[in-house]
Amino acid sequence: MNPASSLPAIFGAPAAFAWRAGLGPLHASGGPASGGGSLALHYRHFGPGSPDKKNLWASFAHRASLSFTQEFSGSFSPPPLNPIAFPPAEETVSRAEWEAYCAKIERALNTGTLNKLVPARAVFHALDPALLTKLREELPARLFAEPREGSYRFLLKQNDSYFFGASPELLFRREHGRIFVPAIAGTRAHGPGQETLEEASRSLLASAKDRQEQALVTEGIAHSLRSLGLHPVHPAEPVILTARNLVHLYTPIEAKDPGIAAEALIEALHPTPAVGGKPKAAALDFIGAHEPWPRGLFASPLLFEGPEGQICIVAIRSGLLNSEGLHLFSGAGFVQGSTAAGEWEETSRKFDSLRDLLKEGR
Questions:
Q1: Residue 2 is assigned to a structural domain of this protein
Q2: CA-to-CA separations, 42 to 93, 141, 312, in angstroms, rounded
Q3: What SS3 state is found at 89?
Q4: How confident is the model at residue 138 (pLDDT cuts 50, 70, 90)?
Q5: Residues in contact with 157: Cβ distance below 8 Å, sequence separation at least 6, in sequence order
Q6: What pLDDT score does 243 carry?
Q7: Does residue 100 form part of some domain?
Q8: With DSSP H G I counted as helix, E B as strand and the rest as coil, what are the percentages for the chain, rounded to 5?
Q9: What domain range is 323 assigned to?
Q10: pLDDT tier at 47, thresholds 50, 70, 90
Q11: Residue 16 falls within a domain, yes or no?
């Protein structure tokens, strides 16, 4: 089976949804909102195979779903979870296809058509019926059981399909009359058999390629906010953001909130240069013309509304569990000096990070 053949371009209306931001409370449809009030989800698809732009938005309010309520009750206490051993992954995009795609990106960078592009990959794990059933039953517990700083976890359930992730990227957060937007780029892994956290952080901060990528992302976001009449401010230098076994460059950006519509913010900010490219329009056109698989909800904006306000997550570091098995998605920033081999390795590290979250025991 071609792994891409079981990837739907469009993920239909979810019957239930949940999210957890960092160390904050778990929110889930079908149950009482933490702190009172109601919950809502708004989302749109990203990339090739998505519907026409005017049909992109879908919204879902707090709704009853007894099975989901039980899974995500306020006293959520999962049973012990045994480690999972996944079978070897199949490549949805072959190494040869990836190299050909990156060669096209490099030509566009050299001609000045693009300053940056974020190509994406997918891998597929074919699961036997017993493992598929086990992962369906335990996915909420594996994803949400423990709060994790710097991680925005989400789960959308539609019939027997689950779109989920543990994204390090927030598109924006609104609270107390302010809009907060993080700029994130660059990746290094740390841990056993690899660099230490300190070594990975120093290496990333010293990398001219990653600093260039971070500067493009930061300026792209600031420009988008200024186009809405906002006045963003941010530090001159990035700092390190830690997300499980990975570190990234991070620049916090904020502006006074004049009450602008959330849809206008998303339209201006998404996709950021961290998940699309720069210039924005040229990058989207390039992805639509050349990326060899449908992104669907990968890297899409997921806007959750709850008692604390609005939080919009970028659905990277994500996966789809369906009747065929487990699909995992990731992307990497390609700028002058990038190589197909280097970005292949970066996306592989991101797959490992999400895979490790799912297979760990408790």
A1: no
A2: 29, 24, 9
A3: coil
A4: confident
A5: 14, 15, 16, 17, 65, 68
A6: 74
A7: yes
A8: 30, 30, 40
A9: 44-62+87-359
A10: low
A11: no
